[in-house]
Structures are given as C-alpha cells and as structure tokens.
Write a structure and sequence with these properties.
It is built from seven helices and 39 strands. It has 522 residues and is mainly beta. The longest helix has 24 residues. A hairpin with a 2-residue loop joins strand 22 and strand 23. Helices cover 14% and strands 43% of the residues. The protein folds into four domains: 103 residues, Immunoglobulin-like, CATH 2.60.40; 114 residues, no CATH class; 80 residues, Immunoglobulin-like; 186 residues, Glucose Permease (Domain IIA) (Distorted Sandwich).
C-alpha cells in the first residue's frame, strides 16, 4: 500500500511539473522574452504588441489565403523565456490596408485586415518599405557645366495616412555665358522636366526642353528647370535656377552702299550686348542715331533732293567690333511741273498766319518719334499705297506756280481721285497730328518709329485722332481739296523727321514715275 501511495505521489509530482513546464513554455505573452522584426526589437510594453502576440497565438480568426500579399517579406521572431523561438513571415504591399502572416511551423498564410495592420506598417523595422520617403532630385548639367542650385519641395504619405513634407535648398545660382546659340541640357532623373525662361521678370518661354529654342537676342536671362514627380504615395519637385548671359558677337551690315537722291539705306547691328557701346562716326548729316527694332539696332540713313552726290564714310560698331563702309550717293534728275492756282486759293493759304500755323503744328509733329516697333521693318516695298487714283505729281519735281519758279521740290506723291476716296495708313504707327491747317488742309501725320513719318494732306475729312495707334490699311480720312490745292487729291509723303524721301522705295522698291506708276499699282 505504501508503495502504491509513493508511486501515485511521484506520478502527481511529474504531472504537476509537466503542467507547470507546459504552462511556462506555452505560446503566450508572459513567455515572450523579446519580439523582433528582421532583427529589430519591437517594444513589448506597447499595448498593440501584446494584442498582436495574442492574435498570433490563435490565427483561426483570420482567413487563410493561398499566397502572400505583395512581394516584400519580413521575418518575425518571438524569443521565448522557456522553449523554442516561434517564427512567422510577413507579406507586405503598398495598399497599406492588409498584410499577410505566414506560420512557419504550418506553412499556412493568414490575411490580417484589422486595426493592427497600420501599427505593423508604422514599425521602424518596416521603414524600408517607404523607399520613396527620400526626396527625389534631378542632376542638371548645361554645356557640361553642373548646375549646383537645387530647391526641393517633396511630399509623401505612410500607412497612417499622414502626409509628410521635406523641403530644402542647396547650392548657389550658377552664371553661364554663351557666345553661340548652343545650350545642351542633360537632366538625370525620372521626373517630368519643363523649362521657364525670364528676362527682366517677363516670362518668355514656358514649355518642354525639346521645344525650347536658345534666345537669339543678347542679354541676361533667368532659366528655371523644374522636374516634377506625381504618384499616389508621393509628389514633389526639384527646381534648379541659373543665370544665362547671351553674348553673341555683333553682326554689322549696311543694306545698301549705293543710293540715289531720295533713297535710303540702313545700318544694322545685331547682337548688341551693351547699347552704351554703340558708336557711329560720319560727316554725312547730323542727328543720325541707332534705334532698337526687334533683335537689331538700326540707323536710318536718308537722302533727299538736296543731298550732295558723292562718297561718304561711315565708321560704326559696338565695343571692339566695328566696320568702315563708304556710301555713294548719286544724282537724280527731277522733272519740272507748271501749276496754275487761283488767286483766291493763294491769298487764303499763302499768308504769314498760315505759315505760322504750319510751323507751330506740322513741323513739330515730325519730331514726335513716339511709335515703338518690335521688329525690323525698314525694307523696300513693305508699305501700303494709301489711296487709289492717278499720279499727278512725282516726288522731287520743281514747280512753277502761275509761271513763277518755287524755291522747293515737291516732297511727296500727289494721287488724284474723286472727293471722299478712302485714305489708309501706309504702315503701322501712332497718329501724332490730326487737324486742319490753312496750308495743308485736313492733315494727318503718323509716327512709324526709327525717326520715320508719313504725312497725308488736303483731305476732306479726318477719321482718326492724335494718339490713335493704327495698322497698315486702317482708314484715317477721305480725299479732298482743302488747303493749298487745285483739286481733289492726296499729297502723300514719307520722311526721316523733316528730310523727305522718295515714297516709291517704301511702296515698291523703286521710284514712282509717270511712266511706271500704272504698272506698279497693277
């Protein structure tokens, strides 16, 4: 009996010890000594850690799936105080809504879709899943020169739905000088890249690198290269700015080196980097100067019926770039005209009062060089004939009025037609005079820039006002016979300030004569 009781006691002790050992080594939170994800320890003091471990103890609450979520895998190890460690495998992806857990001991894979998902994804050991958290940048070189300045504005999100921002600026703005129209961009990066170009705060270009054309005009520009990224999980930009100084060598030219009286030529200088360095040396006439037209600086050199034929030397240029050209002006024969004017017309228009008015209004109008052109335009035959009709007086003729010689040449073209015939602007410009004068009748003067003016006299009515900006072909008045006139006609002239030139060179590229007029207008 004693032996039996002793044996029973031993058995009970063994069972008790085994029970205690089994309890101690069971998979429960009390037996977990440490919890790691890919070797990085997770705090066991967090409530979510305990909850997660308990749920791993009984995975039956989760659905079993055939394969892991995503293709990013992490290893979880529960190191036990008693007994062997327990291992699991996490399967992660970028929807952040679910993850999968593989029980290594059974090879079963469970879909985790509860509140613990976010907690797992936010663990430091999972940080490498946020590969996109580092701001994206581009690397920019222009003509093999690195552009160091970079301004990054980057935003990304994590599983918790919070958007994080990283913004920083590095490097200083680079200055780049080019002497030929070549800019080779090399942008390393996977963003969408666009370009903006400014000059004096004016946006000149906004578009792709492929469509960009190098500035053709000398000057200082600011160039902004921006690469952008956009995704469901991140967006941002990297902006690099550099200064571009375009310094092309000047190109010097004179449109003609041989002109007839009444003709004109133009000195053109392209690629002027500093207008203060422009110079012109000549003894041809006073008042010549350069005016900016588009990408050129132009100087009109006019001639008229009073210009002395001969050779004239012009030295011109910009800075160290210069040229010397000889201009030849040749004589031109001008016809005579005999004109009969009634005494009443002479008495009412050829008075001291009439010429005081003329000198007070008309002559000053030819100094109001107010119109600014945006492109070179002083080419032959670019202008519009302002009225239809027959040619009654050529440019430059010397007149006899009532059988008495005059001291002047006719300074324009006379085109006759019925009263009320429309008269239009010969070219774009600004009206600087629109009024009735005793000598010239209803008169319009238009500034075309660069010292060039057109005048329209003797009209029956005015259809414009001083200050109007007109385009070639715009109606400015109607034909008539006001002022010193013998019949309905338009007196039309073109001048460099008060030096009158042959309008035919602007209209048709050659002088207008009685012989060629009909052929030219047709």
């Amino acid at each position: 009996m004693k032996k039996y009781l002793f044996g029973l006691s031993v058995l009970l002790i063994v069972v008790l010890v085994a029970s205690l050992y089994g309890y101690a080594t069971a998979f429960n939170i009390r037996n977990v000594e440490s919890f790691t994800i890919d070797g990085e320890i997770v705090s066991l003091e967090e409530e979510q850690s305990s909850t997660f471990i308990r749920r791993m103890q009984s995975l039956k609450q989760y659905d079993v799936i055939s394969e892991h979520q995503g293709n990013i895998f992490k290893h979880i190890v529960l190191n036990m105080k008693f007994g062997d460690s327990v291992s699991f495998e996490l399967g992660l992806d970028y929807n952040f809504n679910t993850l999968s857990l593989k029980d290594i001991s059974t090879d079963r894979i469970y879909l985790i879709d509860d509140e613990l998902v976010e907690w797992i994804y936010m663990q430091p050991a999972i940080e490498d899943i946020y590969y996109y958290a580092s701001p994206k940048r581009h690397k920019l070189t222009i003509n093999d020169q690195a552009i160091e300045q970079s301004s990054v504005d980057y935003h990304y999100t994590k599983a918790n739905g919070v958007w994080y921002n990283e913004s920083n600026e590095i490097g200083s703005i680079t200055s780049l000088v080019i002497h030929e129209p070549v800019l080779e961009f090399n942008v390393e990066g996977d963003g969408e890249t666009e370009l903006k170009v400014f000059r004096d705060d004016e946006l000149l270009y906004d578009g792709s690198l492929e469509a960009f054309e190098v500035p053709q005009e000398n000057g200082d520009y600011t160039v902004v290269v921006e690469s952008t990224w956009k995704d469901l999980l991140f967006y941002g930009s990297d902006t690099s700015t550099f200064k571009l100084s375009v310094q092309y060598p000047p190109e010097l030219s004179m449109t003609k080196t041989f002109i007839r009286q009444g003709e004109f030529t133009v000195i053109r200088i392209k690629n002027v980097y500093d207008k203060e360095l422009l110079y012109l040396e000549q003894d041809y006439m006073e008042g010549l100067q350069f005016t900016k037209n588009g990408t050129y600086y132009e100087c009109v050199i006019p001639s008229t019926y009073y210009t002395t034929p001969g050779f004239y030397t012009f030295k011109y240029g910009v800075g160290e770039y210069g040229d010397e050209i000889e201009l030849e002006v040749v004589d031109r024969e001008f016809n005579l005209q005999f004109l009969t004017v009634s005494s009443s017309t002479v008495n009412s228009t050829q008075t001291d009062e009439a010429y005081e008015q003329y000198n007070a209004y008309y002559k000053p109008a030819l100094e109001k060089d107010v119109y600014v052109t945006t492109e070179p335009y002083l080419e032959e035959d670019n202008f519009t004939l302002p009225a239809s009709g027959r040619l009654t007086t050529e440019f430059g003729v010397q007149r006899y009025v009532n059988n008495k010689p005059t001291s002047y040449h006719h300074n324009g073209l006379d085109i006759a037609n019925s009263e009320g015939t429309p008269i239009v602007a010969t070219y774009d410009g600004e009206v600087v005079l629109a009024m009735e004068l005793m000598v010239t009748g209803n008169t319009v003067v238009i500034s075309h820039g660069n010292g060039l003016f057109s005048s329209y006299l003797h009209m029956s009515e005015l259809n414009c006002e001083e200050g109007d900006v007109v385009k070639a072909g715009d109606l400015i008045g109607k034909m008539g016979t006001t002022g010193f006139s013998t019949g309905s006609h338009l007196h039309f002239s073109i001048s460099y300030h008060r030096m009158y030139m042959e309008p035919g060179y602007f209209l048709f590229g050659e002088p207008v004569t009685y012989d060629n007029y009909n052929q030219l207008i047709n």
